[in-house]
Design a protein that fits this description.
The protein is of the alpha+beta class. The chain contains 11 helices and 24 strands.
Length: 588
Amino acid sequence: MTAPRLSALLGSLFLSPSIALAAGPAPIAGAPSVPTTTPPAVPTAAAPNAPNAPAVASPADPTSPVVEGAPPPPPPPPPPSPGKPRKGAPPKAAAASKPVAPAADAKKPDDSKKVEAAQRFDRGLELFDQGDNAGALAEFKRTYEILPNPVVLYNIGLVYAAMGRPVDAVDALDQSVNSGGLSAKQLERAKQTLNDQKARIGRLSVTTTPDGAHIEVDNVEVATTPLAQPVRISEGSHIIGAVAEGYAPARKEVVIAGNSDAAIHLDLVPTQGKQLANLTVRGTAGAEVRVDNEVLGKTPLETSITLVAGHHVVELRRPGYGSARREVDVGEGATGEIEVQLAVDPSALGTEGATLALDASEPSVDLTVDGEHKGVYRDPLRLPRGPHHLTVIAAGFLPVDRDVDLDPGQTNVVRVQLDPTPEKRAQIMSNARFHQTWGWIGVISGAVIAGGGAALVAVGSSNKSDATNQINSLNDKQANDVPPCDQASGYAAEMSLPKAQQQSYTCDTAFANAQNKYDSGKTLVTTGYIGIGVGGALLVTGVVLLLTGESTDKYDHPASHTLGKNRPPKFALVPGPGQFGQGFQLAF
């Protein structure tokens, strides 16, 4: 169902003794009411559907069955204590480290930092409205680093919720709710979303034989057995693993429901003297990764895979693509790396494909999908369903990268707003100013000249009408022998007046004056129509210049310009929880 856009009624940002985010929500310093639970690891470049890293939370009422493991084997040699490193295994290569909150900075940021924060906040709104959740999250987190504020943290929580990362969303929203810095409307929305996201989190208890194993969720280490409390993980399917020195890693797939409890037991088998190794697997995004026919997750994997040193077979599978297998040998204590790119299977797109339609702000954009150049975009494309990486470029504009997740049940419209390069922007501004300046000159001068021409036409028409009436009157008098056009008046004037004054009293003089007035009016009318024509041409030219010129703020995208495209948040299932408010504004 649809829901309003991401928004909140924000007040002015102010500095508070908060800890800025490094890679995820951090607790507010000096606020004892804020939970001190350590937030989960947050990838620095997470895809919208990337699995979230679990964190520790308090258990709730158990509602789901316990997942039992196999009977334990004979007691193996005791593992090292949890605090000691695993000998023989190199450090895991991680895509993102756990966030380290910098010390709170009580010093007020300068104006340049405030400007950067405002720009990044608006950019985050714009990216979210375009569907780029990961980009919006990065901008909001950078804003929080510059100006730690519960309002920004509140919006970070909303983006996490839209990305389907409820554990991270709860951590961020919990802090913003307890901070006391939200308005009444923001607080209500935050609590609704917080409750909705809590309902999407399950609690998993993990036990191992032996104890002291490092527990991984989707290849991300989260705890060490024995656990002090259950691990929080988002509802759905996850790969739970246990790694310990001297033992082969044990892994199981677990499906957990929201707001429920589950348990799993993992038995680790001794490696008979073999050491562990790490293998980094990269490849087509969204592909299922199998090592020795065991499912270990989906690309992109957040960390390397811990396994027993030796020969292994790596296979990647994804609907719409042909599967691919690679064999690799990893030495003891070594870190191996393998990349597997899958090829699209055109025959499978009918059943495993989805339609991508691009809605770009500029015509004739060039499109690249997952590193494959598609050329100038003209028509919707048929691609394998699931995640893809798009790169959109146009001459004179900055390239736009976008991660999308294609739904096979609909036409996936991706809106892309391209921003011009500085040179292109300067050219656009110059052209816009030229059109605006000369457009208004044409409109104003054309209106003045046309108005003057209309006045001349009015005066000239009046003079012509008066002269015509005078001539008609003189003709009537002459025909009816009425003074001064009768014979007697003409004779009297001729006999009684000096010769120089006789013409002023004759009928001919009156006719001559009327004709002159008519001719003068006719000239004024002609001149007026010429003025109207010239003024009209100038006015039309000015209007055309104004209409054809680009706006000077065409490529400025404040939040008020970009909200309202009604892209429903992916996590909104029911009215209320999970939906966003309206009027997302931020003042510095």
